[in-house]
Structures are given as structure tokens and as C-alpha cells.
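Can't paste images in this forum, so I'm doing it all in text. The chain is below; anyone willing to post the predicted C-alpha cells underneath?
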Amino acid sequence: MTATPPTVDDRPVVSPTGGGKPGRAGLLLAAALYLVLAIILWWNVWTGSPSGTMTCACTDAGRMVWYLDWVAYALRHGLNPLYSTWLFHPGGINLLDDTSVPALGVVLAPVTWLFGPVVSMNVAQTLLPALDALACFWLLRRWVDWSPAAWVGGLLFGFSAYLLTQLTYGWLNMTALFLFPVIVGLLDDLLVRQSRPAGRTGVLLGLVVVVQFFLSTEMLVVAALTSAVSLVLLVGHAAIGHRRELTKRLHHAVCALGVAAGVAVVLLAYPLWFFLFGPAHLGTVVWTTNVPGAIGNTWGTFWHTLDTNVFLGHALRETFGGYLGPTGPHPSYLGPGILLVTAVAFALAPKDRRLWFFGALAVVAALLSLQVGGTGGLTWAPWALLDHWPLLTEVVQGRFSAVVDLSLAIIVALAVDQMHRWLQPRGEPWAKSASAALATVACGPLIIVMAPTLPFTVQSIYVPGWFTAEAPRLDPTDVLAPYPFPTADSQAAIPWQAITGLSYKMAGGGGPAGTVDRAGAEEQGFSVLHAASLALSPPPDPNAENLTAVRRAFRQWGVTEVVVPVGSDLPAYLTGRSTAYGLGFYTATMGTAPRFSPLGGGAWVWNHTSLAAPPHPTTAEALQACTTGVSTVRDLARVPSCVLAHPPAAS
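Text version of the structure:
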């Protein structure tokens, strides 16, 4: 992140101009106001059913529910919270390679134990914007005299378009940014103020790095890169015009950074090995299922008032699931007000090196966030120089928008404070009003754009009745293959497992590990199941080769139960191509009719003894004839016999 010479002129000094400790009362008041705003965002959750509603128990949000539940489950049962075979059985899932947030899982474990993972998810999504804003407020109070100016800066960071849009997608790892301002403050102490012992500051910075590692390894890389940029900017400036000050601070800074590095290396030695080489390590892209270079910003995304990402918006939500509310601004949206006040800041204090520093950092971060691949990519963008480096190739460069937002939030707060300090000594009766007006100019456009999307839209969580009634009776020796089969594009069954208590293991899973090219030796079977569960392309041919591949995969994965829950009049992300299709496809795969379990509304189940029967290959036309136009339970019950009545298709 960054530190900067905190003076308003060219004289090198150690102590900053203005600001100070915010005091307990100031922190509590700011925290209360931020929390009220956060509750307003999630008003539909807290006035409804916190345990039964969320944006969507699907896609990444549903998988985040599973992550929170797994950490609590692992702590209670003495298991490794960073690794689980409850998904992708028997190989398992490396949670550090994925987008999990184990640090939040540990903190929220008591909530999960008492109220369930959905409540934990809603608590996290409510608290995170308030925590992010409060951390920025804490940072700013060291540089500004007027508390409202710091409060506005915290508001712009914690409730930015970037943070709010990530919240609607359920990306806790992208919204848990409260340590970013803390890193800035520690680097300011370490490199500029140097009023505390180097060892103490270094230990604190090392501990913060460790915690950030367990919040998001990807965002830690973003923080590390921008910290490196900050050091280059700061040292370069000092080397040009303030070499004496640079020499004076060098020993303290090197000692503190050395201590920080030592603490981080010691505490992260095993977790880092686990992340890079541990069980179920992916080996390639670890934070996304997309090509990272192709999902950065373009120049237009900083001005777009609507998020045009069709996957995360409305166009494909029936198939994939997702947020049902109004589409908000693009995550990198800034708004004209912030940019106007930034210009005012430089006009009010053109010699304030903090402004120049954070302005430069914002520009560099914006450049690093630009897309370098795919449609609209810029081949000259700076990320093209880094895109092929180890680990950096995994970063989604659009994440640098968080650093842009933090830098500009600091600049806006400095501008509002400077306006207040400029007018107040003159005895102007409207000093506070003018400063408040400047803050309103900064925040106004973003508020106008976000207002139609608030409070966030939530929906009732759907879990098939069989999973709530029967699944808790299972035990971890049971391995389920439900329909829709869990993959990166079909994740509904993942929160079902978490919400019902993680009482069984499951073949398949979602997230970066759930893509076809990561299925290993059983790639063909996984590919067939993926195509059978996702209604975006033609269904797989139910021929002998494909069905045998699925059966072979089931055996290798140790599947003991194959389950198709009853479901009708539900979106595709909950029922795949349809309950009838799933029933017919699995009948052909298993080669025998299932038993019907009426518990909780019902499900068709094949148990482990059914694996002895050979598959029953058929034709796509026959399978379609048996499954089209079927919706009632009585009609569905005839699907298996219809499929099995057709003579096996020739190989």
C-alpha cells in the first residue's frame, strides 16, 4: 500500500500536519453511523429472515456460505480448515487455492455454530462495508483535523461502487478490505513518522500481512504490488530532493521492514507451502475460472453507470443464478463528483505532497487495472508487462480498483478538511456548510447512481426438502452425486450441503477447481455431467461411451448415493435442464430404476448397490421423448421406466 510525507509544503519533516488520534468517542460515533448505513443496505435481510434469505444461495455467494460453514465444522471436529474432502471427493479442495475467507470463517464460527452459515454470511456482508469505512476513517484522522472530513473519506471507500457491487455477488474475499487502510497507516509509521520502535511497527505489519493472507491471497498480492509502487514513488521523490531525510529514515525503515518480513515468513511458511504445493493444489489459475487478463477495466468502465457484465447481471441468471436486484454501476465507477473534488484539492493545496502521492498512486493503480486480453483489451496497458510472471498471471487486474478508491477517498477527505481549515480561521460562518457542500459534490453522483439499487434485493433460500429431511441422517462415509451435478457453472447443491450440516461428502464442486479441464483422469465423465446439468448448449449424447465415463467417474469418486430431488417451476440453476431430464439421464447412467424417497417432498435415489448394473445407453431422441413435458411427481415417476423400455442403443 503506501506511506507519504505528510506536509503541505516542500520542507521535509517527520510529523504530519493536522490530524491525530480520533479518540474512542469519535471512533464509536463513526462506527455507529457506518453500521446504520450498512444495515440499510441489507434492510431486507434483517427485517425478514436472516437465516432464510440472502442475495442468492447460488453461484459464488452460495459457495461462500459453504466456506464459512466448513471452517466452523472443521474447528469443531478437529479437521484442517484449509482443506476438505467434503467437496471434490476423494481428492478434496484446497481452500487457499480458492476464493475462501478462512479468517472470517474463524471469527464468525460462533455465529455459524449457533445460527447457521447463512446468518454468518449475512452478518459478514453487513459488517464488512462498515469495517472498511471505519478503517479508512481511522487512517484519515491522522491527517485531517475535522472529523466529518475523515468520515466522508471512510464513506467513499467503504461504500464505493467497487465494494457494493462485490457485496451483491457475495464476494467476501473482495470486500474484506479493512486491512488496506491499516497497511497504509503502518507504512506511514514505518517510513515517515517513525515515532514508534521499528520492531513494534514491523511486528504489527507482519501480523497484518498474515491476516490478509487468510482473508484473500489475491488481494494480498494486490496490496504487495501497490506497496512496491508506493515505495518507488516515495523513495524516488526523497532521492531527488530530500536525500538527507531519506538517509535519516533508512535504517529505521529497513529494520522495521525486515522484522515485518521475518514475522510474515515464519507465520506463513506452512500456509504458503500449502497454498502453492499442498493437497488439491490447482497448479494454474487459482482465483478465477476466467482468463484474468481479459477481466480488467477499460477506460469506459470508470464512467459506466451500469454494470454490463452479463454473467453477473441479469441475462443469464436463470441458468447460473445470481443477484436479482437492479443492476448497479460498474465496480470501477468513480463518478464526476470525486474527480471534481480531486481537482479542487490540488487547487486548495497545490504543494501538499500527500495529494501528489495518492494522486500518482491512483493513476498507477488505474493503469494496472486495465484489461490486456480479450475483446477490448489494451496491448499497451502496463499489466501486459506483468501478466506472464509467476503468480501475477493469476491476478484479476480489475481488483486494483480498490486501491484507486482508497487513494481518491483520502484525497477527497484532505480536500474537505483543507476547505474547512482554510475558512474556519477566517471566521466565516458558513465554513462548515461550504465544507459539507464539497463533500456532497464528491458523494452525490455515487449516491444517485446507487440509490435505485438499495436496499439490496434478497430472495428466500431454496433447499430441496429431501436434503433437509434425509441428508442430516447421512454420515461422512456417504458420497452424493446430486442433480444438478456441482461444477463451476452449476453450484446450487454446494450450499445445500452446508445448510443441512455437512453430514455427507459430495462428488464435484464449484469455483476455480470446478472446471472441466481440472477434472484430471475423469475429465470425460465430469464433462458429460457438466453438460447434462447446464442448459446452455446441446445436452450430452447418452451413448455408451459417455455413460460409461460417468459411471467410471462415480466409482473413482466413491459415490454411494445418486440423488435427483423433486423440483418444478424453479429456475434452471436449481434444476439443471429439468428434474425430468436429470431423472432420465441418471436412469440411463445407472442402468436401473431408482427408489423414490418421499421424505421432504421426495427425491429419486440410487444407492451404492445400484452400481453393479451396467449403463443403459439410449438415443438423444428417446431421452427427450421420455422427459419432455413432464412436471408432476406422478408423471416423473414414469420417466425411469420409459428410458429403460427403449432397447439399449448400439455403441
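Residues 2-17, 309-313 have pLDDT under 50 and may be disordered. The first helix runs from residue 24 to 41.
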